[in-house]
């Protein structure tokens, strides 16, 4: 079950990142929001994403704080399941 959950998180994370990239070009969607949600999901599984987020923490501290809030919310959603 844990492996299926990990694969599901990976797919959902990349879906949000790709949706965010599309949202950067469409005025209707907020691309940055979806990208940060996707990165928050992926950070639990990928060392590369964790390093990238450490870079973002120093470069954009306010956005990093927002992403941490989303990361906490998402982790609570999956703990309930």
Describe the secondary structure blueprint for this structure:
Blueprint: H1 2-25, H2 31-42, H3 47-59, H4 61-80
Helix pairs in contact: 1-2, 2-4, 3-4
Describe the 3D structure.
With 81 residues, the chain is mostly helical. It has one domain. Helices cover 85% and strands 0% of the residues. 17% of the residues are buried.
Radius of gyration: 13 Å
What pattern of helices and strands is seen along the backbone? HHHH
The biggest beta sheet is recorded as: none
Percent helix, as a range, is over 70%
Number of helices: 4
Salient structural properties:
81 residues, mainly alpha, 4 helices, globular
In short:
The protein is mainly α and about 80 residues long.
């Amino acid at each position: 079950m844990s492996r299926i959950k990990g694969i599901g998180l990976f797919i959902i994370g990349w879906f949000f990142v790709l949706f965010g990239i599309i949202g950067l070009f469409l005025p209707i969607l907020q691309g940055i929001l979806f990208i940060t949600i996707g990165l928050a999901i992926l950070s639990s599984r990928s060392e590369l994403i964790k390093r990238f987020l450490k870079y973002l923490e120093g470069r954009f501290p306010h956005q990093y704080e927002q992403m941490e809030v989303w990361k906490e919310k998402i982790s609570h959603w999956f703990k309930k399941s």
